[in-house]
Specification:
single chain, about 400 residues, alpha/beta, Peroxisomal Thiolase, Chain A, domain 1, ten-stranded mixed beta sheet, 14 helices
């Protein structure tokens, strides 16, 4: 239990199928996929999720030319979140605003492009851009947000693989509890669909999804799933202490009730460990002072890989298998692919509106459920209406065995 309650008062996002929470929720409830085919240098045609937001809404052409794709996504999401929360960064508060952005990686897009560019000039380094260093340093996306919004409080990125979206929110919450900031811009972003190296690596692992229809390529829990669809995206939240939010009359989307992070410490960098995942969920429940019976929705991390999905199902069964009325379980990657560092933050956002409308969105593309993924209350085919959605548990797990769980209560 926490000394103060930390709440969500703003949400800004861009995903392969939407550029606002309202659009995103509508897309999820209406089975709208954001996956398409793109052509990558050296690789050819691949399935991917790419965002269609307007970078020039909050940046000028010079900023776009010298900055990064990850920075543009972050700037868009941060501005949208602040607008949603009805907060203006000004001289009175700019030093008490913190920016905490979870990422898998960034800078790869620009670095790959730069290497390719000098290859056209016999690798003459005089053609290498002087913008490389600020583009590729680890704090870049968060730093670009502070420059764009003239925020003088702390900023940094949290490298937590595909658990990074949750990790960004956890970090923002902790900084508010410590009293280091009064407003936290926190969540996760990804530029992954723009870098061919990630596709090539997944391809060499045999983990890159293939399907005749790109909108059906990402299919967590389905018997015929065969890999990941790489996507970009971002979702940043405004976090505040509840007393501050109430004092200014803010809309409250939900309250962070609990969280946990742990590590598999396994012999492989990619195969998840069901026992450690279950332990992470249990730690989050304990921190929140809740039991498995209290959870209404579990948003699964399942990425559409054959073994990865099964491992998470084992973890969920371990925790919730004895519940008399188990939680509804859903997944978002069938709609948007795997948005890597943005995954956890985006997937949480897809479920938060359930606090108001009582609807649990479904998993997309589960045509024939894998028997090893047959979880009680797995929502497939179409959304389910339930009048009593009060607590959401959000799973996000990543390479090198990093696990995260975040619990959100109705505000």
């Amino acid at each position: 239990m926490f000394s103060e309650k930390i709440v969500i008062t703003g949400i800004g996002l861009t995903s392969p199928n939407a550029n606002s929470l309202e659009e995103y929720r509508e897309a999820l409830l209406n089975s709208k996929s954001g996956i398409k085919n793109i052509t990558h240098r050296y690789i050819g045609e691949v399935h991917a999720g790419e965002c269609d937001f307007s970078p020039l809404k909050y940046q000028n052409k010079k900023n776009l030319r010298t900055g990064t794709r990850a920075g543009s996504i972050s700037i868009f999401c941060a501005n949208e979140a602040l607008n949603d929360a009805n907060i203006e960064v000004n001289d009175e508060n700019r030093d008490k605003v913190g920016v905490y952005i979870g990422t898998t990686e960034h800078g790869n897009v620009e670095t790959e492009n730069e290497v390719y560019n000098i290859s056209q000039f016999d690798y003459d380094i005089k053609y290498w851009t002087h913008h490389h260093n600020p583009r590729s340093i680890s704090n870049n996306p968060a730093g670009e947000v502070t420059c764009n919004l003239e925020i003088t409080g702390p900023h940094y990125c949290i490298g937590a693989a595909c658990a990074a979206g949750n990790a960004g929110l956890i970090q923002g919450m902790q900084q508010l509890l410590f009293g280091d900031v009064d407003i936290a811009i926190a969540g996760g972003i990804s530029e992954s669909s723009h870098t061919f190296g990630i596709f090539a690596s997944f391809n060499s692992q045999g983990a890159l999804a293939r399907h005749t229809d790109p909108t059906k390529a990402s299919r967590p829990f389905d018997k015929d799933r065969n890999g990941i669809v790489v996507s970009e995206g971002g979702c940043l939240y405004i976090l505040e202490r509840k007393s501050d939010a109430i004092a200014r009359g803010a809309k409250i989307y939900g309250e962070i009730a609990g969280y946990a992070m742990n590590s598999d410490a396994g012999k492989t960098s990619v195969l998840p460990n069901a026992e450690r995942q279950a332990q992470c969920i249990k730690k989050a429940l304990k921190k929140a002072g809740l039991t498995a019976e209290d959870i209404d929705i579990v948003n699964s991390h399942a990425t559409s890989t054959p073994m990865g999905d099964i491992q998470e199902c084992l973890a969920i069964k371990d925790v919730f298998g004895e519940c008399k009325k188990g939680p509804f379980i859903n997944n978002t990657k069938g709609f948007i692919g795997h948005a890597m560092g943005a995954a956890g933050a985006l997937e949480l956002a897809g479920n938060i509106p359930a606090f108001e409308d009582g609807i649990v969105h479904h998993c997309l593309n589960v045509d024939e459920l894998d028997p090893e993924c047959a979880l009680p209350n797995l929502v497939i085919k179409e959304p389910i209406k339930d009048q009593d959605i009060n607590i959401i548990l959000n799973n996000s797990f990543g390479m090198l065995g990093i696990n995260s769980c975040l619990i959100i209560k109705k505000g």
